[in-house]
Design brief:
alpha+beta, four-stranded mixed beta sheet, 16 helices, about 50% helix
């Protein structure tokens, strides 16, 4: 009996100690959280109320972040702050704000933030007239352009390897959107839990594994005396040994660079073309005007060339309006302040993640006549000549502007004019009107739709 009473007293004491410890840890954690997120800067941008631990993450729909940013923009103005857990973010909206940051103060905003979720990767046949999904054919065609540059060869559209590559790439993009990747970036210790990166980012891992297979296959036929493509040139630099490795020419960098080139050289262009033909379905009168200009300048026999672009202002205007209204990259890749700086009177400290809301630039009501309509006349003057407003920034601006802009412009013009030269795209009679809103997975792409390509 005495033993039981003793055990009971010990358990009661232990439970009391655990309770005290729990209260202490809770108070300590809350104080630590408060100190981490306490704003010690004057004239820091305004923003929504920051909650303990998660900051302002509940204010953002990470599946459609640009829509959330647009709502916060209306409430807090062109520059507002957010917090992902303890990380400070500042969102820039509108043409003047984004241009001032990326162009006029480009050095201050030149850095890129670090993303722990990428550590596991090594970064520190249609029938004529029948309805079909244009997405796959467009993806195949555009991806073959970059594959020729990287791997020195193109793939047949039915090639099983090619299909697998496109499928894995699409899955890897889908994994990067949503709340969970943002949380793991802010609490990277969760990535140290065995199996978490492999399970959460299974598609990314599979895509990079497949890139390894393509590179290894390439190395089997590599001849330093005959450079066929980018991969061959990179391998030749790697042969220079330790000095080359110190300059970044390593196998790991090769796999990462080729993966980046594949992503940058295919996704945005193919998505823009999907938007282009969707808008041709929805605006047949615009499609007819483009085809009339093609017939006048090029005809229906010879293939279009980039020299034709200067003589085709309306077609050029339509392509640019697709990029503006389609809003393919609504949220530019994050920047980070290189040093303490000020922007429009607000203080932004060094190391702050900067998000450029490009959607707010491409649909800035102070710049565009009809920002929320598909209106090619945005890029035509009173005499019908092509003009490009300064607020046209689909490729971002400044020191971190997209390096593939010129290639993308050429691909868009050649693919778009070639297909409209040969076909008229119409909506199948038994199909509902396609949705005009996009679905977000780093890029904003159209919801699947069917189309009929009628030979001209």
């Amino acid at each position: 009996m005495a033993l039981l009473l003793w055990l009971q007293s010990q358990l009661s004491s232990c439970w009391s100690n655990i309770s005290v410890l729990g209260v202490f840890l809770t108070v300590f954690t809350l104080l630590f959280d408060f100190m981490k997120r306490r704003k010690k800067w004057s004239h820091y941008p305004p923003g929504p109320v920051s909650l303990p631990f998660i900051g302002t993450m509940l204010y953002v729909d990470f599946r459609n972040p640009h829509l959330s940013f647009n709502q916060l923009h209306k409430k807090f103005g062109n520059i507002f702050n957010l917090q992902n857990c303890w990380s400070n973010l500042v969102v820039l909206n509108g043409y003047k704000t984004v241009k001032e940051a990326l162009v006029h103060r480009s050095e201050d905003f030149a850095d890129r933030p670090y993303f722990p979720v990428y550590e596991h990767l090594g970064y520190g046949n249609k029938s004529e007239g029948r309805p079909f999904d244009l997405r796959f054919l467009v993806n195949n065609a555009v991806c073959n352009v970059i594959c020729t540059t990287i791997y020195g060869e193109r793939f047949d559209y039915g090639d099983a390897t090619f299909k697998k590559l496109l499928h894995l790439f699409e899955n890897s993009l889908n994994e990067e959107a949503g709340f969970l990747p943002q949380l793991l970036n802010e609490v990277p210790i969760l990535l140290r839990i065995p199996g978490v990166p492999q399970k959460v980012f299974r598609g990314q891992k599979a895509f990079m594994d497949f890139i390894d297979v393509l590179i290894d296959k390439h190395m089997e036929t590599w001849n330093p005396a005959h450079i066929r493509d980018f991969t061959d040139a990179f391998l030749k630099e790697m042969e220079k040994g330790k000095v080359a490795e110190e300059n970044g020419f390593s196998y790991n960098n090769l796999r990462l660079v080729t993966a980046d080139l594949f992503a940058a050289g295919s996704e945005t262009t193919s998505t823009t073309l999907q938007w282009a033909f969707l808008y041709m379905l929805l605006h047949p009168e615009i499609q007819s005007k483009v085809q009339a200009e093609i017939d006048k300048v090029i005809g229906r026999e010879r293939s279009p060339t980039m020299k034709d672009q200067a003589s085709m202002p309306y077609t050029n205007a339509v392509i640019h309006e697709v990029q503006r209204y389609g809003d393919v990259v609504p949220i530019g890749l994050p920047h980070m302040t290189y040093r303490d700086t000020k922007l429009q009177g607000f203080f932004i400290p060094k190391g702050t993640t900067i998000i450029t809301n490009l959607s707010s630039v491409l649909k800035d009501e102070a710049v565009w006549e009809k920002p929320n309509e598909f209106y090619p006349e945005h890029f035509l003057d009173a005499n019908g000549h092509f003009v490009k407003p300064e607020a046209f920034l689909p490729f971002s601006a400044g020191r971190r502007a997209c390096l593939g802009e010129q290639l993308a412009r050429m691909e868009l013009f050649i693919f778009f004019t070639t297909l409209l030269q040969k076909f008229t795209f119409v909506l199948p009679e038994d199909q509902p009107r396609p949705r005009e809103d996009g679905r977000f997975a780093l890029t904003s792409s159209p919801h699947p739709y069917l189309v009929r390509a009628v030979p001209r």
